[in-house]
Design goal:
485 residues; alpha+beta; Nuclear Transport Factor 2, Chain: A; 9 helices; 19% helix
Length: 485
Protein backbone atom coordinates (compact mmCIF):
# COMPACT_ATOMS: atom_id res chain seq x y z
CA UNK A 1 0.00 0.00 0.00
CA UNK A 2 2.83 2.36 0.84
CA UNK A 3 4.47 1.76 -2.52
CA UNK A 4 1.20 2.48 -4.32
CA UNK A 5 0.75 5.79 -2.49
CA UNK A 6 4.30 6.87 -3.20
CA UNK A 7 3.88 6.00 -6.86
CA UNK A 8 0.72 8.08 -6.94
CA UNK A 9 2.54 11.10 -5.55
CA UNK A 10 5.39 10.73 -8.03
CA UNK A 11 2.97 10.56 -10.93
CA UNK A 12 0.96 13.50 -9.67
CA UNK A 13 3.97 15.68 -8.91
CA UNK A 14 3.50 18.63 -11.19
CA UNK A 15 4.36 21.96 -9.76
CA UNK A 16 3.13 23.83 -12.79
CA UNK A 17 4.73 27.17 -12.17
CA UNK A 18 6.45 30.18 -13.54
CA UNK A 19 9.21 28.91 -11.27
CA UNK A 20 12.80 29.00 -12.47
CA UNK A 21 14.73 29.21 -15.68
CA UNK A 22 17.77 27.15 -16.50
CA UNK A 23 20.01 29.61 -14.68
CA UNK A 24 18.11 29.30 -11.42
CA UNK A 25 16.68 32.83 -11.67
CA UNK A 26 12.93 33.39 -11.80
CA UNK A 27 11.84 33.42 -15.43
CA UNK A 28 9.10 35.91 -14.75
CA UNK A 29 11.38 38.30 -12.86
CA UNK A 30 12.02 41.81 -14.08
CA UNK A 31 14.76 42.20 -16.70
CA UNK A 32 15.61 38.47 -16.76
CA UNK A 33 14.94 36.72 -20.08
CA UNK A 34 11.40 38.05 -20.14
CA UNK A 35 8.98 36.54 -22.66
CA UNK A 36 6.69 38.85 -24.60
CA UNK A 37 3.50 39.65 -22.73
CA UNK A 38 1.30 38.37 -25.53
CA UNK A 39 2.81 34.90 -25.13
CA UNK A 40 2.75 34.90 -21.36
CA UNK A 41 -0.59 33.14 -20.99
CA UNK A 42 0.77 30.10 -22.83
CA UNK A 43 3.69 29.53 -20.49
CA UNK A 44 2.77 27.59 -17.39
CA UNK A 45 6.14 25.94 -16.91
CA UNK A 46 8.91 28.08 -18.31
CA UNK A 47 12.60 27.58 -18.94
CA UNK A 48 15.07 29.18 -21.31
CA UNK A 49 17.66 26.93 -22.94
CA UNK A 50 19.65 23.91 -21.96
CA UNK A 51 23.40 23.48 -22.12
CA UNK A 52 23.60 22.84 -25.86
CA UNK A 53 21.49 25.97 -26.54
CA UNK A 54 18.42 24.03 -27.67
CA UNK A 55 15.02 25.07 -26.37
CA UNK A 56 13.57 23.14 -23.46
CA UNK A 57 9.94 22.13 -24.06
CA UNK A 58 7.23 24.16 -22.38
CA UNK A 59 3.85 23.04 -21.18
CA UNK A 60 0.89 24.66 -22.90
CA UNK A 61 -2.11 25.44 -20.68
CA UNK A 62 -4.53 23.99 -23.20
CA UNK A 63 -3.39 20.42 -22.66
CA UNK A 64 -5.66 18.11 -20.67
CA UNK A 65 -6.18 19.85 -17.30
CA UNK A 66 -7.17 16.61 -15.60
CA UNK A 67 -3.79 14.90 -16.16
CA UNK A 68 -0.63 15.82 -14.27
CA UNK A 69 1.79 17.18 -16.85
CA UNK A 70 5.14 15.51 -17.42
CA UNK A 71 7.27 18.50 -16.51
CA UNK A 72 10.82 18.20 -17.79
CA UNK A 73 13.16 17.22 -14.97
CA UNK A 74 10.47 17.04 -12.29
CA UNK A 75 11.49 14.79 -9.43
CA UNK A 76 9.54 13.69 -6.39
CA UNK A 77 9.23 16.70 -4.08
CA UNK A 78 11.41 19.14 -5.89
CA UNK A 79 13.02 18.53 -9.24
CA UNK A 80 16.36 19.54 -7.71
CA UNK A 81 18.42 17.31 -10.03
CA UNK A 82 17.53 19.20 -13.19
CA UNK A 83 17.98 22.56 -11.45
CA UNK A 84 21.50 21.64 -10.34
CA UNK A 85 22.41 20.42 -13.84
CA UNK A 86 21.24 23.64 -15.49
CA UNK A 87 22.63 26.05 -12.92
CA UNK A 88 25.06 28.45 -14.62
CA UNK A 89 26.93 30.81 -12.23
CA UNK A 90 28.18 33.00 -15.10
CA UNK A 91 24.66 33.65 -16.38
CA UNK A 92 23.54 34.33 -12.81
CA UNK A 93 26.18 37.03 -12.42
CA UNK A 94 25.36 38.60 -15.80
CA UNK A 95 21.64 38.76 -14.99
CA UNK A 96 22.35 40.32 -11.59
CA UNK A 97 24.56 43.00 -13.17
CA UNK A 98 21.81 43.90 -15.65
CA UNK A 99 19.36 44.37 -12.79
CA UNK A 100 21.78 46.75 -11.06
CA UNK A 101 22.02 48.91 -14.21
CA UNK A 102 18.34 49.89 -13.99
CA UNK A 103 17.43 52.78 -11.69
CA UNK A 104 14.45 51.52 -9.71
CA UNK A 105 11.59 53.70 -8.41
CA UNK A 106 10.21 53.20 -4.90
CA UNK A 107 7.03 53.65 -2.90
CA UNK A 108 7.84 55.55 0.32
CA UNK A 109 5.56 53.91 2.85
CA UNK A 110 5.75 56.54 5.56
CA UNK A 111 5.20 59.39 3.08
CA UNK A 112 1.75 58.11 2.06
CA UNK A 113 -0.83 60.56 3.51
CA UNK A 114 -3.60 57.95 3.28
CA UNK A 115 -1.86 55.76 5.87
CA UNK A 116 0.27 58.25 7.82
CA UNK A 117 -1.80 61.46 7.73
CA UNK A 118 -0.01 63.45 10.46
CA UNK A 119 3.62 64.13 11.16
CA UNK A 120 3.62 63.25 14.88
CA UNK A 121 2.26 59.72 14.37
CA UNK A 122 4.51 59.23 11.34
CA UNK A 123 7.65 59.94 13.37
CA UNK A 124 6.61 57.57 16.17
CA UNK A 125 5.74 54.83 13.65
CA UNK A 126 9.12 55.21 11.93
CA UNK A 127 10.91 54.98 15.28
CA UNK A 128 8.99 51.83 16.25
CA UNK A 129 9.58 50.19 12.84
CA UNK A 130 13.31 50.93 13.03
CA UNK A 131 13.51 49.47 16.53
CA UNK A 132 11.56 46.37 15.51
CA UNK A 133 13.82 45.76 12.52
CA UNK A 134 16.96 46.10 14.62
CA UNK A 135 15.81 43.72 17.34
CA UNK A 136 14.66 41.09 14.85
CA UNK A 137 18.03 41.38 13.12
CA UNK A 138 19.78 40.75 16.43
CA UNK A 139 21.12 44.29 16.80
CA UNK A 140 21.38 46.18 20.10
CA UNK A 141 19.05 49.18 20.46
CA UNK A 142 20.77 51.82 22.59
CA UNK A 143 17.87 54.28 22.95
CA UNK A 144 14.48 52.61 23.00
CA UNK A 145 11.20 54.43 22.67
CA UNK A 146 9.95 51.94 25.29
CA UNK A 147 12.52 52.86 27.97
CA UNK A 148 10.06 54.59 30.32
CA UNK A 149 10.01 53.07 33.82
CA UNK A 150 6.26 53.76 34.04
CA UNK A 151 5.41 51.83 30.85
CA UNK A 152 2.12 49.91 30.92
CA UNK A 153 1.64 47.15 28.33
CA UNK A 154 -1.66 45.33 27.88
CA UNK A 155 -1.41 42.75 25.12
CA UNK A 156 -2.26 39.16 24.14
CA UNK A 157 1.48 38.82 23.42
CA UNK A 158 2.50 39.77 26.98
CA UNK A 159 3.76 37.14 29.41
CA UNK A 160 4.81 37.24 33.06
CA UNK A 161 8.43 37.42 31.92
CA UNK A 162 7.94 40.21 29.41
CA UNK A 163 6.11 43.36 30.39
CA UNK A 164 7.92 45.41 27.75
CA UNK A 165 7.03 44.96 24.02
CA UNK A 166 10.66 44.91 22.89
CA UNK A 167 11.77 42.48 25.60
CA UNK A 168 8.90 40.22 24.64
CA UNK A 169 9.94 40.50 21.01
CA UNK A 170 13.48 39.38 21.82
CA UNK A 171 12.11 36.27 23.54
CA UNK A 172 9.72 35.49 20.68
CA UNK A 173 12.48 35.90 18.10
CA UNK A 174 14.42 33.10 19.78
CA UNK A 175 11.46 30.72 19.47
CA UNK A 176 10.35 31.20 15.86
CA UNK A 177 12.39 30.15 12.83
CA UNK A 178 11.72 33.58 11.34
CA UNK A 179 9.73 36.64 12.34
CA UNK A 180 8.81 39.89 10.60
CA UNK A 181 6.65 42.83 11.72
CA UNK A 182 5.45 45.62 9.45
CA UNK A 183 3.83 48.90 10.51
CA UNK A 184 0.91 49.52 8.14
CA UNK A 185 -0.49 52.86 9.29
CA UNK A 186 -0.52 55.36 12.15
CA UNK A 187 -2.66 58.32 13.15
CA UNK A 188 -3.03 60.70 16.08
CA UNK A 189 -6.24 60.62 18.11
CA UNK A 190 -7.33 64.08 19.33
CA UNK A 191 -7.50 64.40 23.12
CA UNK A 192 -7.81 67.38 25.47
CA UNK A 193 -7.13 65.48 28.70
CA UNK A 194 -3.38 65.95 29.01
CA UNK A 195 -1.25 68.44 27.13
CA UNK A 196 1.92 66.49 27.99
CA UNK A 197 0.86 63.32 26.19
CA UNK A 198 -0.39 62.28 22.76
CA UNK A 199 -2.66 59.34 21.88
CA UNK A 200 -2.05 57.44 18.66
CA UNK A 201 -3.31 54.32 16.91
CA UNK A 202 -0.86 52.13 14.99
CA UNK A 203 -1.78 49.23 12.71
CA UNK A 204 0.66 46.34 12.25
CA UNK A 205 1.03 42.84 10.83
CA UNK A 206 3.14 40.03 12.33
CA UNK A 207 4.37 37.05 10.30
CA UNK A 208 6.14 34.08 11.89
CA UNK A 209 7.65 30.87 10.58
CA UNK A 210 6.54 28.25 13.08
CA UNK A 211 9.17 25.70 14.23
CA UNK A 212 7.24 22.60 13.18
CA UNK A 213 8.17 19.96 10.60
CA UNK A 214 6.41 21.69 7.68
CA UNK A 215 7.32 25.23 8.85
CA UNK A 216 3.86 26.79 8.84
CA UNK A 217 3.55 30.48 8.08
CA UNK A 218 1.20 32.27 10.46
CA UNK A 219 0.14 35.91 10.33
CA UNK A 220 -1.63 38.11 12.86
CA UNK A 221 -2.74 41.69 12.36
CA UNK A 222 -4.12 44.26 14.73
CA UNK A 223 -3.81 47.71 16.24
CA UNK A 224 -2.00 49.31 19.17
CA UNK A 225 -3.35 52.28 21.05
CA UNK A 226 -0.34 54.07 22.49
CA UNK A 227 0.20 57.09 24.72
CA UNK A 228 3.40 59.06 24.13
CA UNK A 229 4.97 61.38 26.68
CA UNK A 230 5.60 64.48 24.56
CA UNK A 231 8.35 65.72 26.89
CA UNK A 232 10.54 62.60 26.76
CA UNK A 233 9.16 61.21 23.45
CA UNK A 234 8.74 57.83 25.14
CA UNK A 235 5.76 55.49 25.05
CA UNK A 236 4.19 55.22 28.50
CA UNK A 237 1.20 53.04 27.62
CA UNK A 238 0.36 50.51 24.91
CA UNK A 239 -2.78 48.41 24.45
CA UNK A 240 -2.64 45.78 21.67
CA UNK A 241 -5.76 44.32 20.04
CA UNK A 242 -5.88 41.56 17.43
CA UNK A 243 -8.18 41.70 14.42
CA UNK A 244 -10.99 39.34 15.42
CA UNK A 245 -14.61 40.16 14.69
CA UNK A 246 -16.30 37.98 17.31
CA UNK A 247 -13.80 38.29 20.17
CA UNK A 248 -12.29 40.98 22.36
CA UNK A 249 -9.07 41.16 20.35
CA UNK A 250 -7.18 38.82 22.71
CA UNK A 251 -7.85 35.35 21.25
CA UNK A 252 -4.37 34.67 19.91
CA UNK A 253 -4.75 30.87 20.14
CA UNK A 254 -7.98 30.87 18.14
CA UNK A 255 -6.40 32.93 15.38
CA UNK A 256 -3.15 30.96 15.23
CA UNK A 257 -4.45 27.39 15.39
CA UNK A 258 -6.09 27.22 11.91
CA UNK A 259 -2.86 28.49 10.35
CA UNK A 260 -0.62 25.86 11.98
CA UNK A 261 -2.38 22.74 10.76
CA UNK A 262 -0.76 21.43 7.55
CA UNK A 263 -2.50 22.37 4.30
CA UNK A 264 -2.60 19.54 1.76
CA UNK A 265 -0.92 21.36 -1.11
CA UNK A 266 1.82 22.76 1.13
CA UNK A 267 2.66 19.21 2.21
CA UNK A 268 2.35 17.80 -1.28
CA UNK A 269 4.71 20.41 -2.69
CA UNK A 270 7.11 20.45 0.25
CA UNK A 271 10.63 21.37 -0.85
CA UNK A 272 9.35 23.36 -3.85
CA UNK A 273 8.32 26.63 -2.20
CA UNK A 274 7.69 27.76 1.39
CA UNK A 275 4.28 27.68 3.06
CA UNK A 276 2.40 30.85 2.19
CA UNK A 277 1.26 33.79 4.26
CA UNK A 278 -2.42 33.19 3.57
CA UNK A 279 -4.74 36.18 3.94
CA UNK A 280 -6.65 35.76 7.19
CA UNK A 281 -10.41 35.30 6.96
CA UNK A 282 -12.28 36.78 9.91
CA UNK A 283 -15.88 35.92 10.82
CA UNK A 284 -18.38 38.37 9.35
CA UNK A 285 -20.26 40.62 11.74
CA UNK A 286 -23.30 40.06 9.50
CA UNK A 287 -24.78 36.63 8.94
CA UNK A 288 -26.06 34.80 5.88
CA UNK A 289 -29.00 32.53 5.17
CA UNK A 290 -29.03 29.16 6.93
CA UNK A 291 -29.09 27.24 3.64
CA UNK A 292 -26.76 29.52 1.69
CA UNK A 293 -23.76 27.68 0.22
CA UNK A 294 -21.38 30.62 -0.23
CA UNK A 295 -18.65 31.54 2.26
CA UNK A 296 -19.02 34.90 4.02
CA UNK A 297 -16.03 36.50 5.75
CA UNK A 298 -14.14 39.72 6.35
CA UNK A 299 -10.53 40.71 5.70
CA UNK A 300 -8.66 43.10 7.96
CA UNK A 301 -6.98 46.17 6.45
CA UNK A 302 -3.83 45.21 4.60
CA UNK A 303 -1.10 46.50 2.30
CA UNK A 304 -1.37 45.06 -1.21
CA UNK A 305 0.55 45.31 -4.46
CA UNK A 306 -1.61 46.03 -7.53
CA UNK A 307 -0.25 45.59 -11.05
CA UNK A 308 -2.71 46.50 -13.82
CA UNK A 309 -2.80 45.87 -17.56
CA UNK A 310 -5.04 47.22 -20.31
CA UNK A 311 -6.28 44.11 -22.09
CA UNK A 312 -7.32 44.70 -25.69
CA UNK A 313 -7.30 41.05 -26.71
CA UNK A 314 -10.20 39.77 -24.63
CA UNK A 315 -10.83 36.33 -23.22
CA UNK A 316 -8.94 34.46 -25.95
CA UNK A 317 -5.53 35.74 -24.83
CA UNK A 318 -6.08 34.66 -21.19
CA UNK A 319 -3.87 37.47 -19.89
CA UNK A 320 -5.56 37.44 -16.46
CA UNK A 321 -4.50 33.87 -15.82
CA UNK A 322 -0.94 34.66 -14.67
CA UNK A 323 0.78 37.67 -13.14
CA UNK A 324 2.05 40.13 -15.78
CA UNK A 325 5.75 40.45 -16.56
CA UNK A 326 5.90 44.12 -15.64
CA UNK A 327 5.00 43.56 -11.98
CA UNK A 328 8.30 41.91 -11.00
CA UNK A 329 10.94 44.08 -9.35
CA UNK A 330 13.74 41.61 -8.66
CA UNK A 331 15.01 38.12 -9.39
CA UNK A 332 15.08 35.15 -7.03
CA UNK A 333 17.85 32.58 -7.13
CA UNK A 334 16.41 29.23 -6.16
CA UNK A 335 19.61 27.20 -6.57
CA UNK A 336 23.34 27.64 -6.20
CA UNK A 337 25.55 28.78 -3.33
CA UNK A 338 23.85 32.18 -3.10
CA UNK A 339 20.23 31.13 -3.38
CA UNK A 340 17.75 33.61 -1.95
CA UNK A 341 15.39 33.19 0.95
CA UNK A 342 11.89 34.26 0.01
CA UNK A 343 8.40 34.42 1.50
CA UNK A 344 5.21 33.53 -0.38
CA UNK A 345 1.75 35.07 -0.06
CA UNK A 346 -1.62 33.80 -1.27
CA UNK A 347 -4.22 34.06 -2.71
CA UNK A 348 -3.91 36.41 -5.67
CA UNK A 349 -7.09 38.37 -6.38
CA UNK A 350 -7.97 39.22 -9.98
CA UNK A 351 -10.56 41.70 -11.21
CA UNK A 352 -11.57 42.45 -14.79
CA UNK A 353 -13.49 45.67 -15.39
CA UNK A 354 -14.53 47.62 -18.47
CA UNK A 355 -12.04 50.29 -19.44
CA UNK A 356 -12.85 53.79 -20.68
CA UNK A 357 -11.17 52.72 -23.91
CA UNK A 358 -13.69 51.05 -26.19
CA UNK A 359 -13.35 47.29 -26.49
CA UNK A 360 -10.71 47.02 -23.74
CA UNK A 361 -10.75 45.70 -20.17
CA UNK A 362 -8.59 46.69 -17.23
CA UNK A 363 -7.12 43.66 -15.45
CA UNK A 364 -5.99 44.20 -11.86
CA UNK A 365 -3.99 41.69 -9.82
CA UNK A 366 -4.21 42.32 -6.07
CA UNK A 367 -1.30 40.64 -4.29
CA UNK A 368 -0.93 40.64 -0.48
CA UNK A 369 2.44 42.14 0.45
CA UNK A 370 4.59 39.91 2.64
CA UNK A 371 5.60 41.29 6.03
CA UNK A 372 9.23 40.78 4.99
CA UNK A 373 8.73 43.57 2.46
CA UNK A 374 6.18 45.73 4.31
CA UNK A 375 8.63 46.26 7.18
CA UNK A 376 10.75 48.36 4.79
CA UNK A 377 10.52 52.12 4.55
CA UNK A 378 10.92 52.09 0.76
CA UNK A 379 9.15 49.41 -1.29
CA UNK A 380 10.48 48.84 -4.83
CA UNK A 381 8.40 49.50 -7.93
CA UNK A 382 9.10 48.12 -11.41
CA UNK A 383 10.55 50.05 -14.32
CA UNK A 384 8.33 49.76 -17.38
CA UNK A 385 9.71 48.91 -20.78
CA UNK A 386 8.88 51.08 -23.75
CA UNK A 387 6.16 48.80 -25.14
CA UNK A 388 4.43 48.67 -21.71
CA UNK A 389 3.97 52.41 -21.23
CA UNK A 390 0.30 53.34 -21.46
CA UNK A 391 -0.80 49.74 -20.99
CA UNK A 392 0.77 48.63 -17.71
CA UNK A 393 1.15 50.05 -14.23
CA UNK A 394 1.97 48.89 -10.69
CA UNK A 395 1.31 50.47 -7.31
CA UNK A 396 1.10 49.69 -3.60
CA UNK A 397 -2.24 50.31 -1.95
CA UNK A 398 -3.60 50.19 1.58
CA UNK A 399 -6.91 48.32 1.52
CA UNK A 400 -9.45 49.07 4.25
CA UNK A 401 -11.49 46.35 5.94
CA UNK A 402 -13.60 44.35 3.46
CA UNK A 403 -16.56 41.97 3.58
CA UNK A 404 -16.51 39.25 0.91
CA UNK A 405 -18.67 36.36 -0.25
CA UNK A 406 -17.22 33.54 -2.39
CA UNK A 407 -18.16 30.30 -4.13
CA UNK A 408 -15.61 27.57 -5.00
CA UNK A 409 -14.55 27.23 -8.63
CA UNK A 410 -12.20 24.84 -10.39
CA UNK A 411 -11.32 26.91 -13.43
CA UNK A 412 -9.50 30.08 -14.41
CA UNK A 413 -10.52 33.75 -14.25
CA UNK A 414 -11.51 34.10 -17.91
CA UNK A 415 -13.42 30.83 -18.31
CA UNK A 416 -16.87 31.11 -19.88
CA UNK A 417 -18.41 29.37 -16.83
CA UNK A 418 -17.43 32.29 -14.57
CA UNK A 419 -20.49 34.32 -15.61
CA UNK A 420 -22.95 31.69 -14.39
CA UNK A 421 -21.21 31.38 -11.02
CA UNK A 422 -21.23 35.17 -10.63
CA UNK A 423 -24.96 35.28 -11.30
CA UNK A 424 -25.63 32.53 -8.78
CA UNK A 425 -23.53 34.27 -6.13
CA UNK A 426 -25.14 37.67 -6.73
CA UNK A 427 -28.65 36.29 -6.39
CA UNK A 428 -27.72 34.43 -3.20
CA UNK A 429 -26.25 37.42 -1.36
CA UNK A 430 -29.09 39.73 -2.41
CA UNK A 431 -31.68 37.19 -1.23
CA UNK A 432 -29.92 37.13 2.15
CA UNK A 433 -30.26 40.90 2.48
CA UNK A 434 -26.59 41.72 1.85
CA UNK A 435 -25.72 44.74 -0.30
CA UNK A 436 -23.11 44.29 -3.07
CA UNK A 437 -20.44 46.96 -3.39
CA UNK A 438 -20.19 48.69 -6.76
CA UNK A 439 -16.93 48.96 -8.73
CA UNK A 440 -15.57 51.90 -10.71
CA UNK A 441 -17.67 50.83 -13.69
CA UNK A 442 -20.90 51.08 -11.67
CA UNK A 443 -21.40 47.32 -11.62
CA UNK A 444 -21.13 44.86 -8.69
CA UNK A 445 -17.51 44.35 -7.72
CA UNK A 446 -16.75 40.72 -8.64
CA UNK A 447 -13.32 39.17 -8.30
CA UNK A 448 -11.49 35.87 -8.75
CA UNK A 449 -9.31 34.31 -6.03
CA UNK A 450 -6.38 32.24 -7.27
CA UNK A 451 -5.70 29.97 -4.32
CA UNK A 452 -3.34 27.91 -6.48
CA UNK A 453 -1.00 30.89 -6.95
CA UNK A 454 1.79 32.09 -4.71
CA UNK A 455 3.56 35.44 -4.97
CA UNK A 456 7.21 35.20 -3.91
CA UNK A 457 8.77 38.18 -2.11
CA UNK A 458 12.21 39.11 -0.87
CA UNK A 459 13.20 42.40 0.74
CA UNK A 460 13.79 43.63 -2.83
CA UNK A 461 10.17 43.10 -3.87
CA UNK A 462 8.19 40.62 -5.95
CA UNK A 463 10.53 38.24 -7.75
CA UNK A 464 8.62 35.13 -8.76
CA UNK A 465 5.17 33.60 -9.23
CA UNK A 466 4.46 29.97 -8.42
CA UNK A 467 1.36 28.18 -9.75
CA UNK A 468 0.52 24.90 -8.08
CA UNK A 469 -1.05 22.17 -10.10
CA UNK A 470 -4.43 21.18 -8.69
CA UNK A 471 -6.99 18.94 -10.36
CA UNK A 472 -10.04 20.83 -11.56
CA UNK A 473 -12.52 18.76 -9.56
CA UNK A 474 -11.17 20.00 -6.19
CA UNK A 475 -12.55 23.50 -6.97
CA UNK A 476 -9.47 25.08 -5.43
CA UNK A 477 -10.11 28.64 -6.62
CA UNK A 478 -13.01 30.98 -5.81
CA UNK A 479 -15.30 33.51 -7.44
CA UNK A 480 -16.29 36.33 -5.14
CA UNK A 481 -18.22 39.54 -4.70
CA UNK A 482 -17.40 42.41 -2.35
CA UNK A 483 -20.18 43.56 -0.04
CA UNK A 484 -20.90 46.77 1.82
CA UNK A 485 -19.79 46.74 5.46
Amino acid sequence: MRLTFLTFLVLCECYVAAFINSNGIAELSKRTLRPSFSRQHELMYMSSKDKDNSPIPVLDEFEDDEKPADVVGAQFFGGNTIKEDLYDPVAEAEAASKLEEVEQPFYSKFEDPSTFPDNAARKVAMKIQSELNNILAGNIVSESIYSSNSLKWDSPFATNDSRDPMKGLEQANEFYNSMEIGIMSAKSIPSANDQNSAIMEIRWVVSVLWPNAWESRATLSGTSKIIVDTNSNEIISQNDLLDDTNKDGKDIVGLLYPQLTPRFWDLYHIGMSPSAEVTQRLPSSKGKGLLSSYELFEIAPQLVYQPTYLDKGGRDLRLAQVMPNHCFTTSIRTMGPKKDKFVTTSPVEITIQKSSEKGANMITWTIPVAARLSKSEALPLPTLEENEIGLANSAYKYQPRRRLATLPFGGNPQDVEVSNVRRKLYEAVVNDGLKPKMGNDGKPFFFFLQNDAKACFTEDGLGMAVYEWQPKFVNGNEIGIELEL
